């Protein structure tokens, strides 16, 4: 991988990792579903008036918007509010790797290697360890919700694969049109007008910067960068770099919000990372893109 592309990969994973504690800063004053709705509303507007609609069937755009906005990020933010630490959330969401492999086996008849099965078993063992250390039903529910969001991310990957979309940035902008209204509706159904009461006061400098980070860096920049790498290099070269996300997520959570991780959780985290590494490893990684990939 060229140095400039490796730098891009590190920047993308850094942004995604830091996004977890940054999101929690916004959740301190804003309802999780309202915060997520604002994120995707700003990700779509006003760019949707200037960015051409992607050349794919619109049902893929709508489906991805609902899955990505509601099923993934709405659920992640709610799980964090229930008590899951941002660092742990940034790790659990990586289980989407194995869910994606499962969909590939069921829908596309892709072969699952022995290393992937071993990696999945290790990751599940680590997840079980984390679940056993959660104090209270709310925290345990939060972990289960993050697992659900990992499933949603894997479904989103299937939608991307099925759609064959090439205009990734345009696809993200247009897909972001669909989550806001359902997210606001969920917030109202759960808390009524209280979810929106005093919203203008809740959007202080910290919350505003949190939303801005989520929109312009975690959504626009990071997804453009990551999918650009996937177009240049084999998945087997790019995918292992996602292991940096929980590393940055946990480290930044400790620095930004003072997260402390217990020894049992550290052991579980190490087991999950080992499982992800085993599952993603495919032998000797490509050093340079092929001639076709350069194009």
Structure description:
The chain has 295 residues and is mainly alpha-helical. It has one domain (3-286). The protein has 15 helices and no strands. Helix 2 (32-44) packs antiparallel against helix 3 (58-82), helix 3 packs across helix 8 (168-175) and helix 6 (114-132) runs antiparallel to helix 14 (263-280). The longest helix is centred in the C-terminal third of the chain and has 28 residues, at 205-232. The chain is globular, with a radius of gyration of 19 Å. The model is unreliable at 283-295 (pLDDT under 50).
Give the SSE layout.
Blueprint: H1 3-27, H2 32-44, H3 58-82, H4 86-92, H5 96-108, H6 114-132, H7 137-163, H8 168-175, H9 180-191, H10 199-202, H11 205-232, H12 235-238, H13 244-256, H14 263-280, H15 291-294
Q: What distinguishing features does this structure have?
A:
mainly alpha; globular; 295 residues
Estimate percent helicity.
over 70%
Note poorly predicted spans. 283-295
Distance N terminus to C terminus? Answer: 15 Å
Given helix and strand content, the structural type is mainly alpha
What's the pLDDT, averaged over the residues?
85
- Using only C-alpha atoms, the radius of gyration works out to 19 Å
Sheet-strand content, in percent, reads under 5%
Number of strands: 0
Total number of distinct structural domains = 1
**What is the element string, with H for helices and E for strands?**
HHHHHHHHHHHHHHH
What's the quaternary structure here?
single chain
Overall form:
globular
Total helix count?
15
The profile of the biggest β sheet is: none
